[in-house]
Amino acid sequence: MNVRSILWLFAGAALMLALASAPVALAQKKKATPPAPPAGTPVLAFSLPLGGQPGSTVEIAPAGTNLANPTAVWTGFDAKVTLPGEKQPKIKIEIPKSTPMGVYGIRIATKAGLTNLRTFVVDELPTVLEEATNRQATPQKVTLPCAIDGKTDAEVGDFFRFTVKAGQRLSFEVISRRLGSVLDPTLTLYGADAKKSLAYDNDAPGCQLDPRLAYTFKEAGDYVIEVKDISLRGGPEFVYRLRIGDFPMVTTPIPMAVKRGTGAKVTFAGPELGAIEPIELDSTPKAADAVSIGVTPRRPGGQAGWPVPIYLSDLEEVVELEPNQIHEKANRLKTPCGVTGRFETSSDLDIYVFAAMKGEKLVFEGQTLDWGSPTSLYMSIRHPKTKAELAKTTPASAYPADQRVEFTAPEDGDFFLEIQHAYLAGGKSESYHFTARPLTPEFELTVNLDKTELSADGVGVLPFVVVRKGYTGPIDVTVEGTTDFEGKVALKAGQTAGVLLVKPKGKLELGAGKIRVVGKATIDGAPVTVFASAKGPINTALAGLMFPPRHFTQQVAVGVKAPAAFQLAFKVDPPDASPGTKVEVTLTATRGPDATEDITVNPPQGLPPAIPAPKIPVIVKGKTEAKFTLDVTAKTAVGDYFVLLSAKSKVLGADVVSDLVAIPLPVGAPFDLELEPALLDAKQGSKIKLKVRATRKANYKGPIALELRNLPPKVTAGKVTIAEGQTSADLEITIAADAAPAEKIAVDVQGTASALANLAGASPTVTLRIAKK
Question: Which of 187, 260, 413, 730 is such that its CA lies 20 to 30 A from the CA of 737?
């Protein structure tokens, strides 16, 4: 162990305790249960089998509710699907032979809407369905290699018997949490009597709580493998796929990323590799929306291991060169770039050197857990001569912020980036990737739903949120990746949320499709495109899976359904809100001829935490209207919100859900201020006037106190108030005779609503130019 590692080990004990108190693996234990959908919504449960082999046809009797009248089955690959009929009660999915191994999405579209997301597996191993009698005394006999699809029952495990030859090596892997199952599986290998444990695993590194193990059998004969929930839970949602065969078990490819349109020679990191064959990638997709490609590890004569993604990058990608544990051997980086590295021992310290100019801002960001690696990074930047620490990561932050460090060069020259495993771990699975790039203004775009629905002549509602990181300008948000749908909304400068209305292009058939949501802006003169992420709703749909497959998160499903028998519309008064005010909402239901029963509004989604859930009355028979109040409490944070509402009713005896409506709820200052003129020309010893106009919002009619800010020395202005019910006032500015000639650009006016908890808002800036007398 080098000296720096020893110092880190002793001096960093408190840091290690803080890191250990909240590892990501523990966060995974808190598996989320998706909120119950409104009555009448199509819901797809896990259905066995969970998938099939390339080139095979899989028949599924889909489990769930409200699945009558299916119109289409959406899969994440090009499958030929046959819907159920009189002679064929099951759904038939024909998997093309060219389909790569991996986890794909599946949804069923019905006349009533689109189901939730489930997963579908394409696997080269032949599928076996578990039998109900596979208990400890009567294990189910299976022929190897195979993949067993099953579900656990409460209080018992599932046992499978198999036969091996002396010296035979086998790998066992459960894919369960990674499919969105709520099962927290364990694996136990026994002798023939299913009593003596030979090997056990619970949470394998990089597998998001799924277990796997490898074993070489000294003696020929029968052995038994058991799958069970660690807490002995079970039920329809506790599904798994148990893979058994002679295959490698990998965590990540090496390199972990490759520049789009280029090739690479790919090796692997992982606990059980054996004589694994490298993979030659001649080229990769160039499209900006391509996220990753799967690479499938193999050993000569063995079966395919579970594929891992190699991510596509816009940067030059390099792989760490050992030895680089000392500064004289540091790997030189040319920023911007991406780097793949490994910690082969617990004492491994990787050092990189990069050049920067004084004042240059760079950001270094690690990618590990969400890329399949179990590694956690600690990064620090040091001065080239003194080795003093100039910047470092913050381990107490939540991932991935704990693997991000920003750096401003204090001078021209070289600087060292040092990277260690945050827990001083090392081994075959401990790989990492990081990017080094300029720190520039940017933004992130997230959608609040992983699906939207519309009738053939209607619109779908898709709320989204913008996280601005230094960029405050306008953003165009559009629908792309489809010829069937369109949608566009322009966000104003500073706006942080919006709703995209997804519209059909021409006449559409009932069924399902998918779209991408894209944000476009011009930042520092360069066009920037950002693909929206649906990670939040996908995470919920997959039972709290911390890191869902990345290709799931950049698409949104669209269901085309039959028009609902009734629809909702709304009016709000006032259209804007401020903390401490109330908004009155009037809902109007347009009833079709068969929608005559009570209409019950479902609990609203998207309310800010400080706003209590409103009591929304039932729209009773014969009525079409309901009113309720949104209490925008004083603790409500300023921002742009959208409250999502749908309603349910009985129509001809069946549960029917209306289309979703999005009620905009902008919360901000109770006024907007404008200044005239935008350029104030003045001379020493003079007085000038600035007109302040207020556009009142949130029904605020009270006084607005005004204060001119950021004035240069020896320039003053009196405080003025826009009187109750008025919309403008004049501010007089006095320039002293000895005020220095100058041009002050960022002069603005702050207004304060003295009758509404002193809520404040600022005007745009104006320029004050002072000339000599």
Answer: 730
CB 124 within 8 A of CB 216: no
Pairing type for strands 80-82 and 639-645 reads unpaired
- Alpha-carbon distance of 602 to 247, in angstroms, equals 49
**Could you identify the residue written with the tokens 């030979």?**
198
- Give residue-wise pLDDT tens across range 742-767: 888 889 999 999 999 999 999 999 99
- 768 is written with which tokens? 């004050």
85-99, 246-260, 651-665: range with highest mean pLDDT:
246-260
Q: What is the DSSP letter of 327?
A: G
Nearest to 303 by CA among 145, 169, 96: 145
* Strand 264-269 versus strand 91-94 pairing type: unpaired
**What is the rounded end-to-end Cα distance, in angstroms, of the chain?**
73
Helix, strand, or coil here: 369? helix
Tokens 């009448």 belong to 40
The CA distance from 410 to 356, in Å, is 9
Three-class SS of residue 555? coil
Average pLDDT over residues 225-249: 97
Res 5: pLDDT: 38
Mean pLDDT of 726-740: 96
Cα 257 from Cα 433, distance rounded (Å): 8
From the CB of residue 114, how many other CB atoms can be counted at a distance below 10 Å? Answer: 26
If one counts every other C-beta atom within 10 angstroms of the C-beta of residue 232, the result is 13
Q: Is residue 227 left, alpha or beta, with left meaning phi > 0 and alpha meaning psi from -120 to 50?
A: beta
- Looking at this protein, which amino acid is placed at residue 166? A
Q: What's the Rg (C-alpha) of the chain?
A: 31
User: Quick one: tokens of 432?
Assistant: 């990492």
pLDDT at 28: 45
For residues 47-57, give the mean pLDDT: 97
In the prediction, which pLDDT does 85 show?
79
Type of residue at 754: S
Amino acid at 102: G
Q: How far apart are CA 90 and CA 439, in angstroms?
A: 54
Question: Rounded to whole angstroms, how far apart are CA atoms 524 and 391?
Answer: 26
Can you give the length of the chain in residues? Answer: 773
H or E element at residue 75: strand 70-75
Query: 587: Cβ–Cβ under 8 A, 6 or more apart, which residues?
Result: 568, 569, 570, 601, 616, 619, 625, 626, 627, 628, 645, 647
Higher pLDDT residue, 399 or 29?
A: 399
Cis peptide bond prior to 236, omega within 30° of 0 = no
Instruction: Please check the confidence at residue 307 and state whether its pLDDT lies above 80.
Output: yes
Mean pLDDT of 596-602: 95
Each residue's pLDDT tens digit, 637-657: 988 888 989 999 999 988 888
pLDDT at 160 over 50: yes
Number of CB atoms found within 10 A of residue 197's CB: 11
Secondary structure class of 33 (helix, strand, coil): coil
Q: Residue 602: what residue type? A: N
Q: CA–CA separation, 501 vs 558, rounded Å? A: 12
Average pLDDT, the chain: 92
Residue type, position 64, single letter: G
- Per-residue model confidence as pLDDT tens digits over 6-49: 333 333 333 333 333 334 443 444 444 556 676 678 999 999 99
| Rounded (10°) angle between helices 3-11 and 13-20 | 70
574-589 residues labelled b (16+ CB within 10 A) or e (exposed): bebbbbbbebebebeb
| Beta-bridge partners for 665 | 641
